[in-house]
Amino acid sequence: MKKPKNKAQKIAIFNIVSITALIGLAICLGLIAFLTISVKSDIARLNTITNNQNLLHENSSANEILIVQYYQELSDKTDAAINKILIVVGTFASIITIFGVVLAFRAPKEIESKMNELNSKMKEAIDAADNAKYQAEILDALNVNNTVYTGEITDSIRLHQITSVIRKHPNKYDAYAQRAFIQIRMSEREELLENKQHELLWRVISDLEIARGLGQSIDENYSAIGFAYDRLEWHDKAINFYTKAINYNPDYDPAYTSRGITYRRKGEYLKAIEDYDKAIELSGDVSVDYINRSVAYCNLWINELDKDKPNLDEIEKYMHLQELDLMKASDIDPDDEYVKRELDELREFKQKLKQKMENDQEKSPEP
Fold first, then answer.
1. Domain map of the chain by residue range?
2. From the CA atom positions of the chain, what is the Rg in Å?
3. Among 152, 200, 217, 315, fewest CB within 10 Å belongs to which?
């Protein structure tokens, strides 16, 4: 593959070709001048001899033969000179023509290439300026002082402002995604009526569908839609979208975490734990994943405890696993009050359960 020539190389080649053409032209002109002078000299010599012969042999037939022979010789020389001139001029004209044709074809292409390059750079500059302006509008829309307004008013202002941005930039996916996230947060207020919450969540799904069509990443988009369906308590639909996100990007750990939460809400605790395991594997030491898994372990031992004949070994196993996860979460975030409280309550309950089991064993009659 040929290495593309840079601008300096192209200029150097053009200069060399131009200089070569000028030297060739000078040589051709010099040769034409030389041949012209040569022919002119021969004609002058012939005229001198002819005049002398006319003076000496005014009526001599020999003189006429000499003159005829000389003119014949001069004619041959002249023809030869003219042929040489024509060959040189023709060759040079061909070179100039070829050179001109090459330039005629290359120049427009070079100009077109430069114009395309310039247009591309101008477009990039315009796009960059437009994007910077758009990003500034997004930040301005989201940057509402939460210390001045209540949370509800703050989100309402943000929602109004982000909607204005969407009207100006209807083809930017992240504006729709931002509006969806604002509406998700608004839907989580406990004081909202259920129908209002559902209305907001359906708007969320609509905005996210538009955002995906405009280029939002598939894994993030499907996971967010799954969250909205989970909030609507359409758990199977939510799991379906989380699974789509995972199928598209098997390393997208938020989808595993979210799907695990939905499985837990459905009472499928073992499936939830499998997803939490994968989320921990992918994300590393994130306390929330250990907390989520600890809740699933808690659900398992509580379910076992509620049975008519509980399996004490299973209860102890899941309690132990819950305690390990809470301890890990505490190591990651020592200031988490929720983890501290859960850990204290678990240990207290374990102690009470152990005491109860010992008491039950003492009361039971010997066989």
1. 285-362
2. 48
3. 152
